[in-house]
Design brief:
It holds the Pfam family VldE. By secondary structure, the protein is α+β, with helices and mostly antiparallel strands. The chain has two domains: 207 residues, Lysozyme (Orthogonal Bundle); 141 residues, no CATH class. 35% of the residues lie in helices and 10% in strands. The strands form four sheets. The protein has a six-stranded antiparallel β-sheet with strand order 8-9-13-10-11-12. Strands 3-4-5 form a three-stranded antiparallel β-sheet. It has a two-stranded antiparallel sheet with strand order 1-2. A hairpin with a 4-residue loop joins β4 and β5. α2 runs parallel beside α5 and α5 packs across α6. The longest helix has 26 residues.
Length: 376
């Protein structure tokens, strides 16, 4: 297997990536929309075997990296073959993430005695490889995220991570958008096509491996009582600690608590927040007392398993009873829904962030919380 080497400066060391893994890729760069749920029936068998390791390492070392993206990224690199090796004049790349020797030792692994590495080399052991490589890849993600936030480039952080991996972070920092085009950041047409096709390949795999986690049944939950009062001003108490809520928003919150229980560490809703100044978003409903956020898991993390289902339960219940609760719109799992929004390829339509939020971020894309805005 040959490796494609792109040289140049960057935030993190350049990686060697096999051309064979991307030779059949289709063109067209998509916008990152990380899915949180993993369809274990669709992913490779070795990925299923090591899913607990992936979930544990991402949760403890890099909560902003969804396990689904780890699985898709490794598939694009090695097809989940832990013994994969691509030879070149620089020593080659090995293992699930196809790291070169310098990057593997930088991640804390042992240097290779031979090329390819011997069968007992730690770089070829899947569990050891994932435990070392995921935090190393996370460094790329965080470096990319910091640069993209500082420069305002439109590329999503997870896509920036992929650019760093396939081409070196210099291609991210030295390009106008974060995705190099032919003629910039030292990239010719072959290089630029390689990057865009690679990112598109991972997106395709994310979609292929993602589970359709929602919506879910809410028939067992009580229906809310209708709001029949007046709600022109932010005068009701905010039980989540904010300044105030409109009467309709307070009613919606109380009905959510009645159906799902009070927020808490062992409840379906871990935490909630309603009134907030939201100075960075002048169009927000939060400072008007007309919006609340409900977190089924820890803030900043992509929920998995039961926590993800809890989020879908709340989102589905709110959509089902939108008229009764005067719901203006919902945002959840990178999707936007309102009573006037037809479903487009799933629940609602893709959420873009409105130029304010990073839709690929756990919080910015509303993966870690359900946002509900009330009409009055």
């Amino acid at each position: 297997m040959r490796a494609f080497l792109i040289t140049g400066g960057g935030l993190v060391a350049t990686l060697l990536i096999p051309l064979l893994l991307i030779a059949a890729l289709l063109g067209g760069l998509a916008t990152a929309t990380p899915a949180s749920a993993v369809n274990t029936a669709a992913i490779p068998a070795l990925a299923v075997q090591h899913l607990d390791t992936i979930a544990t390492v991402t949760a403890t070392e890099c909560p902003e990296l969804p396990p689904l993206w780890v699985i898709a990224h490794v598939q694009a690199e090695s097809s989940w073959d832990p013994t994969a090796f691509s030879s070149d004049r620089n020593g080659g790349a090995a293992g699930l993430y196809q790291l070169n020797e310098a990057n593997w030792t930088d991640a804390g692994g042992a240097a290779w005695a031979t090329a390819p590495p011997p069968a007992d080399a730690d770089v070829l052991q899947p569990d050891e490889h994932l435990r070392r490589a995921i935090p190393w890849v996370c460094a790329n993600l965080r470096a990319a995220a910091a640069h993209l936030q500082a420069t305002g480039k439109p590329t999503a952080a997870l896509d920036g991570m992929l650019v760093c991996h396939i081409a070196g972070c210099g291609r991210l920092t030295d390009s106008a958008t974060g995705i190099p085009t032919a003629g910039e950041a030292g990239c010719d047409r072959t290089c630029a096509d390689l990057v865009t096709n690679y990112v598109d390949r991972v997106h395709t795999l994310v979609t292929q491996y993602g589970a359709a986690a929602g919506p879910v049944s809410v028939e067992d939950l009580p229906a809310p009582t209708p709001f029949d009062g007046l709600s022109a001003l932010c005068t009701a108490d905010d039980p989540t600690g904010g300044r105030c809520l409109t009467s309709a928003t307070r009613h919606a919150h109380d009905e959510i608590v009645r159906a799902f229980g009070a927020p808490g560490p062992d409840a379906p809703i871990r935490s909630a927040g309603c009134w907030d100044q939201h100075a960075w978003n002048p169009d927000s409903d939060h400072p008007r007392g007309q919006a609340c956020d409900y977190f089924p898991a820890a803030a900043g993390q992509f929920p998995q398993g039961q926590e993800l289902q809890n989020g879908w339960r709340l989102a589905t219940w709110l959509r089902t009873h939108a008229a009764t609760l005067k719901v203006k719109y919902l945002i959840w799992q990178g999707r936007f829904w309102s009573p006037d929004t037809p479903d487009n390829n799933g629940w609602g339509r893709p959420y873009t962030g409105g130029g304010v939020y990073d839709p690929a971020d756990a919080t910015g894309g509303h993966y870690d919380h359900i946002h509900v805005s009330v009409r009055e």
